[in-house]
Amino acid sequence: MSTILVNGGRVLTGTARVSGAKNSALKLMAAALLAPGASVIRNVPDITDVAVMADVLRHLGATVTRHGHTLTIDATGVADVEAPYELVAQMRASIVVLGPLVARFGRARVAMPGGCNIGSRKIDMHVSGLERLGAEIAFEHGFIEATAPSGLTGADVILDFPSVGATENLLMAAVLARGTTVIDNAAREPEIGDLVDMLVAMGARIEGRGTATLTVEGVEALAPAEHATIGDRIEAGTLLAAGAITGGEVTVTGFEPMHLEMVLAKMVRAGCAFEILPDGATVRRTGPLGAVDVATLPFPGFPTDMQAQFMAMMAIADGSCVITENVFENRFMFADELKRMGADIDIEGHRAIVRGVERLEGAPVRSPDLRGGAALVLAGLAAEGETRVTDIHHILRGYEGLTGKLAALGADVRIAED
Ligand code: UD1
Fold first, then answer.
1. How far is the CA of 137 from the centre of ligand 1 (A)?
2. Minimal CA–CA distance to 97: which of 29, 25, 20, 44?
3. pTM score
């Protein structure tokens, strides 16, 4: 069992480069299933979630090879259409193989997903959307089975909520359906634009990229493609927050700053200054952090994946604020751990009232999930003394070399193997 050890109090300075976006790469890998032949995906982060998705694809019969940050996925030999429980339970995002498998093979069986424990995380929109495209869905023995023996047919789908995963699953199903599919109230996260770009490179016909209405003209077949993953905006936000929480000056490169517009706007209100670069941003903080309310919303709103890291900053801000979580239930688990470090936080339903304290104290804490774990590391950077973060497998699922990148910025942080 490894832990992350942080000795707080260092001011971070310097430059860090983000890896490719986890939430993009996983879906780009699933998209490779849509065409026989070898697709090449560059800028793929070296994280556990990607390794799990590679195992899912291998289980299905694809060959997956990694050279540095480039993955080659040859989906020619895909013969099985079942994603087993042992793999799906490790990573909920495996559900996105459902759409491409049923689109290409007319059949898919995927174990009911597990993953981060941050709410009930239903899949009803994935299911009803695929049904609209003509798939028959059955739930049996813990599996979702989708069948469409004579192929999928385009249809109009209106999502109840702009779900990222449902939008992606439906997109990957619709590209090989007969006729036109319109996905309305589609999620607009940048990772979906990245998926659209890869699908278009494979020969898909999609309009409305970046908007809430995606129109897909189904095509007979797709071809493999080469594509580079966008930079990870959430990793970028986390590293910028590390600069801000320690009162330093940190440049983060390798991502599109417009993808982080709302986060940067909130950080400016909290007293940070930014310089926007062509492929990144520099954060600088000269005065104390101020308290700022945030409410998470689908893109372009404040990302739920930055909520915990922002709360860590607000824990030492001057004044009180309200952080509202609108996307997931049960995403404040890390707040109890933060309180063990001296934070003053009250949770009322989906709102957290955070009263800034003068300083946090290092403490042993447990990482409850991916972003909550990252937030505890950030809190440790600003805390007095040593913070020992356990259950770091959550953090390793989604951050490539987080401790190394922070250490290169001057943090006293390392992974300790017990
Ligand atoms: C993705 C991201 C995750 C991010 C989230 C929101 C990946 C691998 N994960 O998760 O990091 O926090 O987007 O930006 O890309 N919902 C339903 N029914 C459904 C689908 C979703 O009720 O069929 C609900 C969920 O329970 C949740 C909300 O919709 O409350 C948002 O979920 P969704 O946008 O689907 O998130 P994910 O794709 O799971």
1. 20
2. 29
3. 0.97
**What is the distance in A from the centroid of ligand 1 to the CA of 124?**
11
Cα 109 to Cα 156, 176, 337: the distances in Å are: 24, 18, 38
Q: Which atom of ligand 1 is nearest to the CA of 370?
A: 11
Q: How far is the CA of 287 from the centre of ligand 1 (A)?
A: 36
Q: Which atom of ligand 1 is nearest to the CA of 125?
A: 23
Pick the residue whose CA is nearest to atom 5 on ligand 1.
164
Q: Which two tokens stand for residue 343?
A: 């934070």
Can you say whether the dihedral through the CA atoms of 110, 112, 115, 121 is positive or negative? positive
Instruction: Collect all residues with Cβ–Cβ distance below 8 Å to 69 and sequence separation of at least 6.
Output: 19, 20, 42, 43, 44, 45, 46
Residue 332 corresponds to which tokens in the numbers above? 């404040």
CA 300 to ligand 1 center in whole angstroms = 15
CB 403 near ligand 1, within 6 Å: no
Q: Is 272 a catalytic residue?
A: no
Ligand 1 pocket check for 122: Cβ under 6 Å: yes
Nearest Cα to 357, choosing from 375, 340, 377?
340
Does any ligand 1 atom lie closer than 6 A to the CB of residue 292?
no
For the chain, 418 residues long, give each residue's pLDDT as a single digit of tens.
799 999 999 999 999 999 999 999 999 999 999 999 999 999 999 999 999 999 999 999 999 999 999 999 999 999 889 999 999 988 889 999 999 999 999 999 999 875 445 555 688 999 999 999 999 999 988 899 999 989 999 999 999 999 999 999 999 999 999 999 999 999 999 999 999 999 999 999 999 999 999 999 999 999 999 999 999 999 999 999 999 999 999 999 999 999 999 999 999 999 999 999 999 999 999 789 999 999 999 999 999 999 999 999 999 999 999 999 999 988 999 999 999 999 999 999 999 999 999 999 999 999 999 999 999 999 999 999 999 999 999 999 999 999 999 999 999 999 998 7
> Packing angle between helix 370-382 and helix 333-340, nearest 10 degrees?
20
**Residue of 56, 116, 166, 377 marked active site:** 116
What tokens were used for 295?
């409410």
